[in-house]
Amino acid sequence: MLYRQNFRTANSTREGTRTKREIQRVVVRINKHVRSYQRARKAILRLDLNDNIGEKILAVSKEATEENRFGQGVSKMAWFWMVDGEQNQPNVVNGGLMEEFYRINWLKARARRDRWREEVSLVRHEMLWTTLWFQYEKEIWETWALQSTEPGKEAYASKQVELWSDFTKKVGLMFQGKQMEWI
Fold first, then answer.
1. Other CB atoms within 10 Å distance of the CB of residue 157
2. Are 58 and 44 in contact (CB under 8 A)?
3. DSSP states of 16-79 as a string?
4. Tens-digit pLDDT profile for residues 40-74
5. Angle at which helices 97-147 and 151-174 pack, to 10 degrees?
6. Integer angstrom CA distances of residue 137 from 101, 107, 128, 141
7. Helices (runs of H) and strands (runs of E) counted in the chain
8. What Å distances lie between residue 25 and 20, 28, 38, 167, CA to CA?
9. In terms of CB atoms within 10 Å, which of 83, 92, 112, 147 comes out highest?
């Protein structure tokens, strides 16, 4: 996130170097906390006071902070979201905060699905618009080829007709069955 916000927008080499140093410091701090968490996790596993906390439950991915990482649709929640504070029992049916958390998680997943549906619809429409634009350009150049009286202009217009016809054929093959149907 720092890379995207600061390094990409750096206007000078000096700013870029400072941003790289800042990113390195943040990575060192993150790694320190990861090691601390791993030590605590190993200690809990060694104690194994409660059989509900196991190897699978305590696993944490380093990608938890990545906001747009690939594969978020199948990601699992961290174990600490599923454990009730005092009893160390899974907190699924109690309601309250966990119920709200699951509801929010479900709403986020539904919003993500809706965004992708909208994106698919837009891409299909853009495919249709591209095809129609190529056909429109071909028709314009055809009329110019028919109306031109000079041989050079007619040859150029004929070449453009051929170019736009080729584009129309290629997109027709590439988008076949994928684009919106033309009414």
1. 19
2. yes
3. HHHHHHHHHHHHHHHHHHHHHHHHHHHHHHHH---TTS-TTTT---GGGG-TT-TTGGGPPPPG
4. 877 777 776 555 555 555 555 555 555 556 665 56
5. 150
6. 53, 44, 14, 6
7. 4, 0
8. 9, 5, 20, 51
9. 83
Nearest of 82, 180, 91 to residue 129 by alpha carbon: 180
By the 10 Å C-beta count (0-12 exposed, 13-18 middle, 19+ buried), 1 is classed as exposed
- In angstroms, rounded to a whole number, what is the distance separating the alpha carbons of residues 131 and 158? 20
Residues with Cβ within 8 Å of 64's Cβ and at least 6 positions away in sequence, in order, are 78
Distance CA 160, CA 5 (A): 44
Place of tokens 């990575």: 27
Can you tell me whether residue 136 is helix, strand or coil? helix
For residue 18, which amino acid is it?
A: R
| Contact yes or no for 92/82 (Cβ under 8 A) | yes
CA-only gyration radius of the chain, Å: 29
Q: What is the pTM of this model?
A: 0.47
How far is the C-alpha of 65 from the C-alpha of 61, rounded, in Å? 9
